[in-house]
Amino acid sequence: MILSASILSSEEKGINILKKFNNTNVDYIHLDVMDGKFVNNKAFQMSEIKKINDISLKSLDVHLMVKNPEKYIQDLAMLNVSCITFHYEPVKDINNLIEYIKSFGIKVGIAINPETNINNLVPYLDKISQVLIMGVHPGESGQAFIDDTFEKVKNLKQKIINNNYKTIIEVDGGVNDTNALKLKEFGADAIVSASFIQKDLNNIKYLKEL
Ligand code: DX5
Ligand code: ZN
Question: Which atom of ligand 1 is the closest one to the Cα of 135?
């Protein structure tokens, strides 16, 4: 399983945990960017993101939980960013934003909130690298996984297979040893984890070996 390790939304604690992740086989550092508008919390400033980028030995998998994602792209493009994922819900011209991110040579993902139907994403599946399905309401680590997520993963996977798309499915929020295997069986290709792997780094091995 591809594993994207999420750091905490406080820079100080985040840097400490980031240094630990550097010595593991996690695939990416998942960076949650929050603007205090699309979600209540706020993190990180661009100066903090640059610091995280300098310390990280892994490329960044950036999750923009923000109202105006286009404002962040140019700065992020200067960093070791593998993929930029923005939310479906606040963006008016999705095709335009996809092309803009791609123009920097960066992979594109679209994230959807628990209450958003996956059918909304169908027109974009052939143009993006990943769909990020939220397993919790965006904004905080450590929340309980919403069980409806399983069906969303399964239905989206079916659409991807039927159309021969290469889009991968990443699940973010509330992932642990009670749901990760089932998520994989239902079609998840990648997992984001903060609390489960931070409480015990051995849980990285568990998720990677799924
Ligand atoms: C939630 C964030 C997640 C979060 C995951 O809004 O997008 O990336 O850090 O945290 P856990 O794994 O603790 O649910
Ligand atoms: Zn995230």
Answer: 14
